[in-house]
């Protein structure tokens, strides 16, 4: 299920040749969620990146990260997970979502931001949580972005154990004062057991709600792309029909960057708010 060396999308090729875009903002939000003052408006040249339903459930802010920004200290983000974090499906590591997120956040905040890519293809949560605990002790990140659950859902892992390990990882980060943003499972057309798969998606959401952790819902985003038109989702995926390609990772990075912009904005987000989209050209 893990495939590399896939052809680069046209969007990825264009991105290399054009000047890097410099402005990001939230394009839509609910619950009177306004993001004034955190970046100039940007034209949404790729409408496929838009989500027409909320994709980020905001249950808490990112106090540690926000403090680093206020004090003009370098920001360190640990992106951990499986193949979607590693960047399987991208034409090169430079087109993985963590690499593109680092560039996007540096432009948004005009600040030193390092996003460490700790993705490892094929992992389930039982393997990732151990690496997370070790990384927390050695790298001291300001934020953990934990992409989690796809391989567990595909392989049919134990649901009770999954929830317990997810809580364990969240608790390990919080014990050190490290903020957490979860990224749930991807949607893809060939899901064989949709009922079981969506149970795992819901486990991420319910555990995050109980732990008061924010979630970026890749599942909702990619399902929205599919509902817009099948060709929209296909254009975001790599040739294996499972992992994102360059364009999909680009959109994912844009949207996470806009979400973090919102989360770090002082006094702008209330508990339970949801962000629908955040895009840049």
TrEMBL record:
<dbReference type="InterPro" id="IPR057572">
    <property type="entry name" value="NonGDSL"/>
</dbReference>
<protein>
    <submittedName>
        <fullName>SGNH/GDSL hydrolase family protein</fullName>
    </submittedName>
</protein>
<keyword id="KW-0378">Hydrolase</keyword>
<dbReference type="InterPro" id="IPR036514">
    <property type="entry name" value="SGNH_hydro_sf"/>
</dbReference>
<keyword id="KW-0732">Signal</keyword>
<feature type="region of interest" description="Disordered">
    <location>
        <begin position="1"/>
        <end position="24"/>
    </location>
</feature>
<dbReference type="Pfam" id="PF25182">
    <property type="entry name" value="NonGDSL"/>
</dbReference>
<dbReference type="GO" id="GO:0016787">
    <property type="term" value="F:hydrolase activity"/>
</dbReference>
<dbReference type="InterPro" id="IPR051532">
    <property type="entry name" value="Ester_Hydrolysis_Enzymes"/>
</dbReference>
<feature type="signal peptide">
    <location>
        <begin position="1"/>
        <end position="44"/>
    </location>
</feature>
């Amino acid at each position: 299920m893990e495939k590399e060396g896939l052809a680069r999308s046209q969007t990825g090729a264009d991105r290399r040749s054009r000047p890097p875009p410099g402005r990001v903002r939230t394009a839509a939000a609910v619950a009177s969620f306004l993001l004034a003052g955190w970046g100039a408006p940007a034209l949404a040249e790729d409408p496929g990146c838009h989500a027409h339903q909320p994709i980020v459930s905001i249950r808490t802010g990112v106090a540690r990260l926000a403090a680093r920004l206020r004090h003009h200290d370098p920001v360190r983000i640990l992106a951990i997970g499986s193949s979607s974090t590693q960047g399987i499906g991208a034409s090169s590591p430079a087109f993985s979502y963590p690499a593109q997120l680092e560039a996007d956040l540096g432009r948004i905040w005009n600040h030193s931001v390092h996003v460490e890519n700790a993705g490892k293809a094929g992992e389930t949560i039982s393997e990732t949580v151990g690496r997370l605990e070790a990384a927390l002790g050695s790298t001291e990140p300001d934020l953990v972005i934990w992409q989690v659950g796809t391989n567990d859902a595909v392989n049919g892992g134990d649901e009770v154990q999954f929830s317990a390990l997810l809580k364990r990882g969240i608790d390990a980060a919080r014990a050190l004062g490290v903020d957490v943003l979860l990224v749930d499972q991807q949607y893809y057309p060939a899901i064989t057991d949709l009922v079981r798969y969506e149970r795992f998606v819901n486990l991420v959401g319910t555990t995050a709600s109980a732990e008061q952790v924010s979630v970026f819902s890749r599942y909702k985003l990619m399902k929205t792309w599919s509902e817009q038109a099948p060709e929209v989702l296909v254009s975001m995926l790599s040739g294996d029909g499972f992992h994102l390609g360059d364009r999909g990772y680009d959109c994912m990075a844009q949207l996470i960057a806009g979400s973090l912009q919102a989360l770090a904005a002082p006094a702008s987000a209330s508990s339970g708010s949801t962000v629908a989209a955040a895009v840049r050209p």
